[in-house]
Write a structure and sequence with these properties.
The chain is α/β, with parallel strands linked by helices. It is built from six helices and nine strands; from the N terminus they run αββααβαββββαβαβ. The protein has a domain at 53-177: 3-Layer(aba) Sandwich (Rossmann fold), CATH 3.40.50. Bound molecules: adenosine monophosphate.
């Protein structure tokens, strides 16, 4: 009944070995999302430091960042802005290439989705190497956003993503760490 948040997250996040390829442990949050209490507590914990500071926009990274970011935006009475994979947004866009393990990909935002000086929070489910979030921060900084923080449910600290984002001047907040990749 009074299970700690850490215990509840450990129990509700499913580890799938060797997905999407051998050697990777995939941290699957669909099991967290389908648990009414774990989902609620995760969103509450992510929201908590930012209550009352006047965030303008919550920016979610496709696709799991949309689910968490939408709930966080609702709770903070902020707007929601998507960062999408290349080719999905219909309006005028800005674009950035970022490295994946093999090759590069691109992500995009609508050019008019953030006004200069707006206070934003970047959201995704997990930070690993930090390459995805770094690209997101760079897009936001190009639009003149004040990136107040980046938050994630899961940190894989062995992969160093947190340091990469903090080096851009953006504080990182996560709810649970798992060793390895
Ligand atoms: P990275 O750019 O290396 O920080 O990777 C972060 C992105 O890839 C996030 O959008 C995650 O959802 C996804 N990701 C990377 N590694 C994992 C993992 N072990 N389990 C689940 N998702 C992962």
């Amino acid at each position: 009944m009074h299970e700690s948040l850490t215990d509840e997250l450990e129990a509700s996040i499913r580890a799938i070995p060797d997905y999407p390829k051998p050697g990777i442990v995939f941290r699957d949050i669909t099991t967290l999302l389908q648990s009414p209490r774990a989902f609620r507590r995760s969103v509450d914990a992510l929201v908590h430091p930012y209550i009352g500071i006047g965030l303008d926009q919550i920016v979610g990274i496709e696709a799991r960042g949309f689910i968490l970011g939408g709930a966080i935006a609702h709770q903070l009475t902020a707007g929601f802005v998507p960062i999408r994979k290349k080719g999905k947004l219909p309006g005028e866009k800005i674009n950035i290439a970022y490295s994946l393990e093999y090759g590069v990909d691109q992500m995009e935002m609508h050019r008019d989705s953030i006004q200069p000086g707006e206070k934003v929070l970047l959201v995704d489910d997990l930070i690993a190497t930090g390459g995805t979030a770094e690209a997101g921060v760079k897009l936001l900084q190009e639009l003149g956003a004040d990136v107040v923080a980046a938050c994630f449910v899961i940190d894989l600290p062995d992969l160093g993503g947190r340091k990469k984002i903090e080096a851009l001047g953006v504080p990182v907040r996560t709810l649970i760490e798992f060793e390895g990749d």
